[in-house]
């Protein structure tokens, strides 16, 4: 049926007399396209097509009709329809930058009728101006020709309608006359729009910042004037001279979704002046100089020549691990491993067939002891055994008190799931010392191997930051992993979490739930924590708040629930780089022990970083529920900027020395509002590394 509709549409197009369609016909055309035919042409029933030739013909007809519909929507200034078509079709499907028979593009019509909203929508979709307009004279001549030919056609049709007797052909002539009259008015409006337009004003603002030791970031805003034609591109120029002579370089920006540009390949320590100018169909407008008027590419490390903290650390650790393996590779404990190929990889689908074999050692209930459970989830479903149980294995049935050191050791082991067999063999050799700690950790490795073997999956995911304990003496260590594939497995059940929770028949009382009951009750919270732990910050410079609290066996750090792998923070700016000049100012402020900036000062109002810090500190104080007047006792960490890759960096705000870490039993007068939690410091460090 759909194919027949497309054929009928093609026949109707073939019978259509030459000349432009009427506005009503245009409306019917693109409404029909956006309704009935809002499907990709490859989704038609290919069995009903006779050969590739007909399929290609249908494809071309589809693209042609989409392109025509877009032109008609722009001509009728229907913003909603233009946005809808740009949303549902790609630029290629719309033939967005292919001129029509009049040598015009949709963007040309929008800017010459001064329809700024449609022009901006087209520009963001990647629309260009017609390449036929190489100069102002050529554009003016082309518009005059279109107006003259349309006027001539209107006069011819009007004479035919007046002189001919009324009949069927005359009615068709009247329709053509109305269509040409409408197009004649459109062309005159476009010509008038072009003639009355003027070059654009300078960009309203141009901000210059240091992006690195070899680059500068330029951010600019549209001209304020609303009387000139729509701006279609910008030009960024840079020079070492304030007169811009000689000019060192320039870049034309025609993708206007984000008005910023990074100048790369500059010389560190050299001052560069930057200016930006705007362009419309009348030409380039005057340039706007940047604020500040120049900038010097640099980085805070140049202040004292400091090397990156983590440079070479990963390589050094890999080398150290390799040395350890080399020392142990000839141990007798590795004999059982030699028969197993090193590259052995269990496919999830194959191994999970045996996940719930009757001989498996997954547990249904907990006795007094230490256990390991693995949570695999996908969307709102969770992986369970054939008995609707979460996979649980036993670590030690005589272990009723988990030491924090053992738990933190296990969280570090989770960074090398693929090395469990090797670790287990090495710990076996060391067991001759009969150390209780080594025996416990060996049992942990044994339980991990058992879980990996039964699941057929090496990576068990991330260890939840605290084990679950109950009054019956059970301790449950939880690992979490999200399965993002849509693969189906044999003998495996994906059960909705809500169904698993409602179907759980607890043997414990509500007052004393078992560790498994507690796990099911809090499962959504744990999954939310796991998902949030993998979120990354957007590029930028942040102000972080370091607050610790100590217990008998650990130190914990305050973090936001929404992003538990990062300190409490607010964003200072989008540029993550701290320049050498900015770092010198921070060092000077720290050397005289000035309080952190919370109130404006006249002599520093020209320092952008000072102003940005004022705003960020006020926002951060409000976030962690500390009165702003207390900020005078806080200080900025001035030893280094914390770099997390190339795109994210942190400045740290520290409480007074006595309040950085709250001791056990010490009251904290300012407790953060809801939305925060405290993590063991080692867990936080692991999450940060991930």
Automatic annotation (TrEMBL):
Annotated GO biological process: establishment of mitotic spindle orientation; regulation of establishment of bipolar cell polarity
Pfam entry (one): fn3
Stretches for region Disordered: 1-25
CC terms in the record's Gene Ontology section: spindle
Record-given protein name: ANKF1 protein
Domain Fibronectin type-III: 202-299
